[in-house]
Specification:
Layout (H helix, E strand, L loop, with lengths): L2 H38 L2 E2 L10 E10 L2 E9 L17 E7 L6 E9 L14 E5 L2 E9 L5 E8 L7 E2 L13 E4 L5 E5 L32 E4 L12 E2 L2 E2 L17 E8 L2 E7 L6 E6 L6 E8 L10 E5 L2 E8 L11 E7 L10 E2 L3 H4 L1
Parallel strand pairs: 1-22, 14-18
Antiparallel strand pairs: 2-3, 3-4, 4-5, 6-7, 7-8, 8-9, 10-11, 11-12, 12-13, 15-16, 16-17, 17-18, 19-20, 20-21
The protein binds beta-L-arabinofuranose.
Beta-L-arabinofuranose (FUB) binds next to strand 2 and strand 15.
Family: Belongs to the glycosyl hydrolase 43 family.
Protein name: Alpha-L-arabinofuranosidase
GO biological process, one term: xylan catabolic process
């Protein structure tokens, strides 16, 4: 065989090998797609905003007196430009909404609290929550104080729809954002809270408010959400806030660089058969994920994704049982056609597997917007 024929044979050989490799690669990719889908079992849902007259976000849903009550943030366009600290979320008041049936007609109970009525608060009325005890209703809300530090306040009402009368000062030892108050089966109430970036949790790592943002490096434990037991009076903490440990499946702390799983903001807790489910937003990876524990203080072990990213930057939710079914309340920016700071509350049914795990939901509506 001369040199030229030898090269031709080698070239044909190489082409055949590369075709075989490509075919095998395609097969492997097909396979891994299939196994990923099987593992995640993502359910795609179509949803409509519950409120279209106003923009609403960060829905905290509760069942009071056989109705679903929703305590959301009230988004509006204040003209403040968007930045990484969320200054464009410049909300000033809260409305309460209710529904007699899941997905039924929504009643707007109007403004129940305004920033001008809160002595200590100056701006940014962010994600609230509510709780009931002995026939009184408590609205917990974060806002910035006169030093531009996020604190958590409380306002009290005789009915779930308010109006709420604010306490003169914020809750002592409270800081950061996104309070979620959970009533345990033994009658104790706990507040879960915190949020990094604009939520300022990173400033409290040393125990007092730092002048500048400082984040742990990627290879160390991520900043953890906080918990504090509420006093019997429901308007103060009965203990110093504690950190909640978040672990991976091997019992190691979730790390700062693990943006797909580490805590960012929007904590929520529900309990089923002795298991506490702590769900939260991963912020810059835009997911709602969850972790479980047999203790309200944790440690909680990461389990998986509840809600894939929605249209808009933030993802914030609540989970509530109503008439035997579980529902996920969340928001997206579909009504405003993608405006980050103009969001709308939605709901969909949540499905649990027999082993207690939660089926992942994909409620993205990106395609219909473009
Ligand atoms: O709505 C303002 C902030 O955006 C909330 O407090 C966060 O959870 C995020 O949804």
């Amino acid at each position: 065989m001369n040199k030229r024929s030898l090269y031709s044979v080698m070239l044909i050989g190489l082409i055949l090998m590369s075709c075989k490799n490509e075919a095998e690669k395609d097969k492997t990719e097909e396979k891994s797609d299939v196994s990923e889908t099987a593992q995640n079992d993502v359910r795609k849902v179509e949803t409509e905003p519950l409120v279209t007259k106003d923009f609403t976000a960060d829905p905290s849903a509760h069942v009071f007196n056989d109705k679903i009550y929703i305590y959301p943030s009230h988004d509006f366009d204040s003209g403040v430009p968007e930045d990484d600290l969320g200054n464009h979320f410049n909300m000033r008041d809260y409305h309460v909404y209710s529904m007699d049936s899941a997905g039924g007609e929504v009643t707007d109970h109007g403004v129940v609290l305004d920033v001008d009525d809160v002595e200590w608060a100056t701006r940014q009325m962010w994600a609230p929550d509510a709780a009931e005890k002995d026939g009184k209703y408590y609205l917990y809300f974060p806002a910035k104080d006169e030093n531009d530090i996020f604190r958590i306040g409380v306002a009290v009402a005789n009915t779930p729809e308010g109006p709420f009368t604010p306490m003169p000062d914020y809750i002592e030892n409270s800081y950061s954002i996104d309070p979620a108050v959970f009533e345990d089966t033994d009658g104790e109430y706990y507040m879960y809270f915190g949020g990094i970036w604009g939520g300022q949790l990173q400033r409290w790592e040393t125990g007092s408010f730092a002048d500048a943002d400082k984040y742990p490096v990627d290879s160390v434990k991520a900043i953890e959400p906080r918990i504090a037991k509420l006093d019997k009076n429901m308007v103060s903490f009965s203990e110093e806030p504690k950190r909640i440990q978040l672990l991976d499946e091997e019992g190691n702390d979730l790390l700062t660089g693990d943006n797909d799983r580490r805590f960012f903001e929007a904590a929520w807790v529900h309990k089923i058969d002795g298991t506490y489910y702590l769900s939260y937003s991963t912020g810059d990876t835009h997911k709602i994920v969850y972790a479980t524990s047999d203790n309200p203080y944790g440690p909680f072990t990461y389990q998986g994704v509840i809600l894939e990213p929605v249209l808009g930057w933030t993802n914030h939710h609540s989970i509530v049982q109503f008439k035997g079914k579980w529902y996920l309340f969340f928001h997206d920016s579909s009504l405003s056609k993608g405006k980050t700071f103009l969001r709308s509350v939605k709901m969909t049914e949540l499905t649990f597997n027999e082993d207690g795990s939660i089926q992942t939901i994909n409620a993205a509506v990106q395609d219909s917007i473009n």
